[in-house]
Amino acid sequence: MISKGFSYAFLGALAWSGAILCTRLVLQSGENLYNVIFWAVLFSFPFWLLRFTRHTSELKALTKKDYLILLAMTLVSTLGASLVEFFALKYTPAVNYSFLIRTVIPFTFIFAFFVLGEKFTFKKIFIASVLLIGAYLLATNGKALSLSLGDFLTIFEAMLIALGNNTLGKLASSRMSTGLNTSAIFLIGFLPAIVIMSIFGTIHWPQSILFIVLIALCNILLAQFRFTAYKNTSAAVVTMVFSFTPVFVSLLAIPFLGESLSVIQIVGGVLIVAGGVLVEALKV
Q: Which residues, other chains included, contact 225 with Cβ-Cβ below 8 Å and sequence gap of 6+?
């Protein structure tokens, strides 16, 4: 029987893939990335506000440490990683970014070890190696990477995601309900995110409203599935299962974006799927 942790992480990877695909489709129509993010965040606001109001009774039980965890998560992942991503994407090729962002896996192992006490095991290291090799082949088509400033920024972003989303996210999930931590994180970062998007991009009424609403919906589902997965399994398992995301994106890009895969990329995708299956089969 498939575990709840794996199932929710798998659904989270699928939701993230939907958000990425819709974002690509919107950008192809000529929309500015930061205008897209601005409206996706704005459209998500009513849902998260309503969800937060249904969990306000839990606030009394939170400690000062809980509030610090929520604030740290917002600063590190929602705001810090978002800013670094802007410069990473500006100064590095998309191919390099697609692979190097998966260094989030070893960074999560390290942070989870020190913060959460999750142990290093041979099974984890073996599966992580399979996933990284698969991600490399899928993203680069087997070609060598030439590292630049943007590449190091991408690795730094992966580190921030590993700390904020994965490690602190798992920690928050063990201390409060999924509904409270997901809505609180969004609301804490809402105004700063809106300001940042306004600074980096020209904000105007978008043409592709339907796709932006779908992006908002996918991001909501992503948050829900991710933090529910944290309730049922380790941070390391969640981040490894999320490696399914580039496979989903590549498969969806074939019919919707007219993209194709080489034999080497298919091998990479197979390795990622195999690694993801091993996460569940070996009960990492």
A: 8, 9, 11, 12, 15
**Per-residue pLDDT tens over the stretch 70-99:** 999 988 987 677 778 877 877 877 678 888
Each residue of 155-207: pLDDT tens digit? 998 999 999 999 999 999 999 999 999 999 999 999 988 988 888 888 999 98
d(CA 284, CA 280): 7
Residue whose C-alpha is closest to residue 177's, from 66, 72, 75, 49: 66
Question: pTM of the entire structure?
Answer: 0.91
Instruction: Please enumerate in sequence order all residues whose Cβ is within 8 A of that of 119, keeping only pairs 6 or more positions apart, or say none.
Output: 113
Residue where the block lists tokens 């740290």? 72
> Dihedrals φ, ψ of 2, to 5°?
-75, 135
CA-CA distance, 102 to 109, in Å (whole number)?
12
Whole-number Å distance between alpha carbons of 133 and 99? 9
Q: How far apart are CA 239 and CA 272, in angstroms?
A: 12
Q: What gap in Å lies between CA 5 and CA 115, rounded to an integer? A: 20
